[in-house]
Structure formats: C-alpha cells, structure tokens
Amino acid sequence: MKKYLHFLIIISLSTSTLFSQKKEKKYNIRTIAFYNLENLFDTINDTTINDEASPIMELKANRSKVYWDKIDKLSSVISQIGLDKANTSPAIIGVSEVENLSVLDDLVKSKHLIQKNYGIIHYDSPDKRGIDVALLYQKKYFKPIHHESFNPNIYKENYKIYTRDQLLVSGYLDDELIHLIVNHWPSRRGGEAKSRPLREKAAHQNTKIIAKIREKDDNAKILIMGDFNDDPTNSSFKKVLKTKSHKNKIGKMDIYNPYEDLYRRGFNTLGYKDKINLFDMILISSPLLNKSKKDFSTYKMFKAMIFNKRFLTEKNGKYKGYPFRSFSNGVYAGGYSDHYPVYMYLLKEQK
C-alpha cells in the first residue's frame, strides 16, 4: 500500500510539473522603436548645409552646454523605452532629425547607453538643412547584412525637393531576417493639402523599396517606421501604401498599421497650433502579425505603443499637454523632443 501511494505521489508531482511548465512559457522580447530627436545638431558650422537655421546654432550663448544636456536627456529617454518588459533599451531604434554621424556617436557613447554597445547606420541626406535619418542597434541582438539609402526624387513644379533619404537596413534579429525602412517624409509647410502630394510621392518610394525586398522573399518581415508628417488616415497611407488597421482583413501582401486604432482613440505623438497629430509610427508586413495571439514560434508583434511618460510632457505654458520640447521661440526650453517616441514589442517563444 505504501509503495502504491508513493507511486501516485510521483505521478501527481510529474503531472503538476509538466502542467506548470506548459503554462510558464518563456519568450524573447525585443523592442523596436522610432524617435524624432528634434534638431539634434552639433555646435560646429558646416558650410555645406544650412545648419545655421538649426535652433542650437541660433542660441547666443551656452551652445556646448545645451548640446550635451540634450544628448544626456535624449539618451536617457532611449535607455528607458521598453525597459519594463524587455529589461533593456530597444534592440533597434530608428531616429530622425540628426545632423551627422558625429552627434549619433555622442548619443550612443553617453553614460545612459554606452554599456549597450549600439551600432550606427547613417547616410548624409540631400536635405538642405542637413537633417538625416539613421538606425541604431544593439550588436548583441541585431546583425545587419545590407543597408542602402534611397532618394525619393520628389519634384514640385519642375524643381526638386531636397528632402530626407529613406534608409533600408536588412539583418538578423537573433536568427530571423528582418527588413527596416526608416523615414522622415516632407513637412506640411504651406499647408496639409498643398504639401500632400509630396508625402504621397514619399509613400510611393516606400512601395518601391517594399517591392524590391519582396522580389527575393514575398514572405519578408518588414517594419516601416518614421516621422511621416501625416496621420494614419491620410491618403499617403490609405491610398498609396494601402495600410489596414483590422488584423482579420490583412492579406499576405498587406501592410498593417497598429497606430491607426490609437489615432482613432485620441492618442498623439505631437501637437502643433492647437491640433494634435500622430505622425510617428511603426508599420509591419503581414508575416509579423500574430492573428491567433498564440503562435509566437517566430518573431511576431505583441503590442505597439507610444512612449508618452509624464516627464516627457509639458506641464505649463502654451505647449501644455504637448511633448516637452527642447527649443521654443529661439531659446532652450530644457525638454527632450517635440515628438514622443513610438515602440513595439516583438515576441518569440524560447525553445
């Protein structure tokens, strides 16, 4: 009888352990992010671009102090994005409004990020002010194998618009090949309607990059990120990129925009002239979409968010409730950026 009871206890404990192991699945969590760094310019005059128009160059004094304070603040923000779930800063983060490779080098070598060993992919764009896009990545998680810069070749009334390039980076997130397109589309200067065709042309350039990727792999995992200077429901997304916001309507070749739902619910990434906008987004191709909410055998999007912590929000004055900006009316406001960062978690079940 004692032997029989002992056998039952062993079976019971084994079943309990198996059930517990089945419930407690473990996942790799990787944060993918994008952040407009609001005029991250150095203090050196570059005669080949119009960097004199940057806010930091317009300051009468303390430029160096302001520059290093801005580097410290921005790197502190980046170090916190996704930290609560991934236990580290973003594995990959696209950035915009940076002047050159030098400012990016200062950023990743700051006290908040130096231990993360970020790599940098950057090209000088033809933008007249000299502002570029770039990609930062933790070398332990991401291994780039290819990158190139695409000029959108946008013309208006027979003259070329010298705007930001679109950066394509392909590489392995752990052991999975992904492709990232970093954007900063033309602004709304002159009004949304008047400038709309410029962003539609920028979106068309994205479709060509996507088509190039899919020539080699029509099941490619693609992430499209940036400051698009358009909201999720504008024509550049709905008519050109043909983005969709309902998971159950996403076909194999469709692009899913998780930020359209956030926009409809009243969320924003910036404010301007008493109007809020959601210009900063990360879009994904269908192979990154988890429709069943159960299959994480490969990397899939778990959740897309806006990093809009209270300390990043202006609490007083004319910009109250907006992102706490660095510069205002020609003076250093002491904030971070006039945009909130955006980010998403990619999950993969550990084997």
End-to-end Cα distance: 40 Å
Q: How much helical structure, as a percent, in the residues? A: 25-40%
> What is the string of SSEs from the N terminus onward?
HEHHHEHEEEEEEEHEHEEHEEEEEEE
Strand elements, count: 19
Helical region count?
Answer: 8
Low-confidence stretches: 1-5, 7-21
- Biggest sheet record: 7 strands, mixed
Q: How are the strands of the largest sheet arranged? A: 5-8-9-10-15-12-11
The count of domains is 1
- CATH architecture grouping: 4-Layer Sandwich
Mean pLDDT: 91
In the CATH hierarchy, what is the class? Alpha Beta
Q: What characteristic shape results from the CA principal axes?
A: globular
CATH superfamily: Endonuclease/exonuclease/phosphatase
Proportion in β-strands: 25-35%
What is the CATH third-level topology name? Deoxyribonuclease I, Chain A
What gyration radius follows from the Cα positions, in whole Å? 22 Å
- Structural category is alpha+beta
Would you mind describing this structure in some detail?
The chain is α+β, with helices and mostly antiparallel strands and 351 residues long. The chain has a single domain (25-349), classed as Endonuclease/exonuclease/phosphatase (Deoxyribonuclease I, Chain A), CATH 3.60.10.10. The chain has 8 helices and 19 strands. The strands form 5 sheets. The chain has a 7-stranded mixed β-sheet. Helix 3 (63-80) packs across helix 5 (101-108) and helix 6 packs parallel to helix 7. The radius of gyration is 22 Å and the shape is globular. The two termini are 40 Å apart.
